[in-house]
Amino acid sequence: MRFPEFTEEWETKKLGEVATNVMYGMNAAATNYDGENQYIRITDIDEQTRLFCPNPLSSPDGELDNKYLLHKGDILFARTGASVGKSYLYNDKDGKIYFAGFLIRLNVRAEDPYFIFSQTLTEKYQRWVLTMSMRSGQPGINAEEYKLLPIVIPSIQEQEKISSFLSLIDSRIQTQNKIIEELKLLKITLRYQLYEQILNHENEYVQLYRLEY
User: What radius of gyration do the chain's Cα atoms show?
Assistant: First the structure.
């Protein structure tokens, strides 16, 4: 399925051909959030949405180096453990973030970053991760191996149109999820109030019964 105005063949390239500034994150422990400098670790990337969802917010402990700051076009990849392959695309709205050592950063500028990132959300990518990570006998993919990830590349105009369409769907999903969470909270509140009312009525009945007898 494609948008009808695009007919050119898609190229297949390796991620390393379109990404630059490949590096590992900072080797620092997390500490209490200082109000400015956020720290992203593997566990701060939501399993389902791949959004930055820290709970709680934290900051890197120790001296800060700006080379570990995230910028537009940065994509993070988990390099080890059960979450190997998990990815995150930096969003300016997430603020000032440093990335931790078990993550690998690649920056995409010549192509549409969201289009490249969206290919890490496919079953094809998950199969690649499974194959690549098991070569060493334990889950893990290093920076050089991530650079070998095959990706498809249409024209930049088609990339941007696809990204815009998928981003719109993501936005709708997030809105619906927020509504669902609010309804769940409302249900809990109403249920609590309802049961409290029933218990209060029962207590009043018991007290009245004791007074009469």
Answer: 24
CA dist 50 and 68 (Å) reads: 20
Q: What pLDDT is attached to residue 8?
A: 81
How do beta strands 97-99 and 38-40 pair? parallel
Q: What's the Cα-to-Cα distance from 105 to each of 71, 77, 89, 170, rounded to whole Å? A: 10, 7, 10, 23
Quick: pLDDT tens for 74-117.
Answer: 999 999 988 999 999 999 999 999 999 999 999 999 999 999 99
Is 11-154 a domain of CATH 3.40.50.300? no
For 153-178, give the DSSP string: E--HHHHHHHHHHHHHHHHHHHHHHH
Domain boundaries, the chain: 11-154, 155-213
The residue among 168, 117, 156, 165 whose CA lies nearest residue 6 is 156
DSSP 9: P
Which H or E run contains 39? strand 38-40
Measured in degrees and rounded to the nearest 5, phi and psi for residue 74 equal -80, 130
- Among all chains, which residue has been given the structure tokens 């498809």? 152
Amino acid at 58: S
Distance in angstroms (rounded) separating the CA atoms of residues 128 and 85: 9
Residue 207 has which token pair? 């007290």
**Lookup result for tokens 């950063």:** 105
The two tokens of residue 91 are 């969003």
130 near 122, Cβ under 8 Å?
no
What's the pLDDT score for residue 211? Answer: 47
